[in-house]
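Task card 7
Instruction: Convert sequence to C-alpha cells.
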Amino acid sequence: MTVIDVTQTDFQREVLDRSHTVPVVVDFWAAWCGPCRALTPILEAAANARDGQVVLAKVDTDANQEISQSFGIQGIPAVKAFRDGVVVDEFVGAQPPAAVERFFDGLVPSATDLLVAAGDEASLREALALHPGRADAAVALAGLLHRRGEEDEALEVLRNVPGNLAAEGLVSRIALERAGDIDVSAALAALDAGDQEGAADLLIGLVAPSSAHNDDLRRVIIAALDALGVEHEGARQARRRLAAALY
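Output:
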C-alpha cells in the first residue's frame, strides 16, 4: 500500500519500523488546514507514481497530538521523510508539484544508482551512457577493464572523471605497472587483497628523492588511504609518513 493513514498506536510499526525497508514520507496535516488540502493530493500523486518505492503516511495532527509534539510540529503542513528509523529530509508549508517531485526523487535510487549498484560491465556502461561524468561508475568499469588487461580502454574511461581520487589512483597504478624501473608488485598485491594500510606502507617505502615515480606513488597511496576514510587513524599516520617522505 503506497498511501496509508497512521495513528499513535501504529506509528512505530508503520513508519519507524517500515522505514528500514522502504522510505516513508509522513504528511502531518489537519482537516481545517487549507494548505494541507492543497498539498496532500500532490504528495499522494508523487507516492503513487513511484509504485511502492516510497510509502506516504498521513498523520492527522489534531487526533494524534502526542506524535506531533514528539516531532516538534509547530506549523502544518509539515512533511518528514524517514529512512532507517530517523528523519532524513523534511519541509514545511505547501509546495508546488515540481518541488515535491524533487523531494521524493531524493529518497529513491535513480536508474543510474541502480545500474551502478548492479556492478556488471553492461550495467556500468549503461550508467555512463546516461551520466558520462559519474565517477563511481567510471572507476568500477575501469577496474573491470584493468583486471582484464584492457588498460588503454580503462584509461579512456577514467579521462571523463578528472579530479576523482580513485580514478587518479588507478591511472597512476597503470603507469607504475607499465614502468620498467620500479617494482610495485608486492604493494599492489596487498592493495588487491584489501590491505590498504600495508599497501600504503610498501608504496611509501618506494618514494625516493627526485624519483620520476613519486607523483604516481603519491596518487596511488592517497587513493588507498581515502578508501579507509578521513577518520581512520592508520590512514592519518600514513599520510604523515607520506608527507615526510615527499618533503
